[in-house]
Amino acid sequence: MPYEWSQSEPDACRLRLWPYRSLGPRGFAAFIGATALMLAVPLFAVLGTAILWGLLPFIVAVVAGMWWALRRSWQDAAVSEVLTLDHDRVAIRRTDPDGTVRDWEANPYWTAVNLRPLGGPVAQYLTLKGAGREVELGAFLTPEERVRLAEDLRLRIAGVR
Among 21, 66, 78, 117, which one is least packed by beta carbons within 10 Å? Predict the structure, then answer.
């Protein structure tokens, strides 16, 4: 599950959320290498001919395009959210892929955990409402993970009230 709770202090806890990544650095390298190898196999038949030089730019373009697309996907998924919860404050710090940091704070006593099964931008839309604002939490999680997270949050917020 792409989130974890940790106990930062005796009366405070932290929740760290991140997007799921099915392709790690080793998998990325293996995929690019396998793609290049599979695309190079047909080139053996045309070694030493002018056709090789006609096909080679397209093969290089395919591998470079795949490299660029996977790197872009990795950069777009470089988002994280950290929720800090103690007896007098609940705070969320979201770091976007471009480095922008957004903060939100509220009193846990007045904070409501809302889970909208329908009607939100995504299924099981999870928000926290407090201090006059409503903020989304875990937009990159699956609907099932947002349901479990909402239950966890309700229990932990009720525990610090």
Answer: 117
Give the CA distances from residue 63 to residues 30, 31, 40, 50, 59, in Å, rounded to whole numbers and listed in that order.
13, 10, 10, 21, 6
pLDDT in tens, 34-81: 999 999 998 889 998 999 999 999 999 999 999 999 999 888 888 899
Q: Which CATH architecture has domain 3-20+80-160?
A: Roll (2.30)
Kind and range of the H or E element at 133? strand 133-136
The residue ranges of every structural domain in the chain are 3-20+80-160, 25-76
**Gap between the Cα atoms of 33 and 66, Å rounded:** 11
Identify the CA nearest to 87 among candidates 10, 26, 152, 12.
12
Would you state the pLDDT for residue 21? 82
Side chain identity at residue 127, one-letter code: T
Question: Which contacts (CB < 8 Å, 24+ apart) does range 71-78 have?
Answer: 74/21, 74/28, 77/19, 77/21, 77/140
148: exposed, middle or buried (Cβ count in 10 Å: 0-12, 13-18, 19+): middle
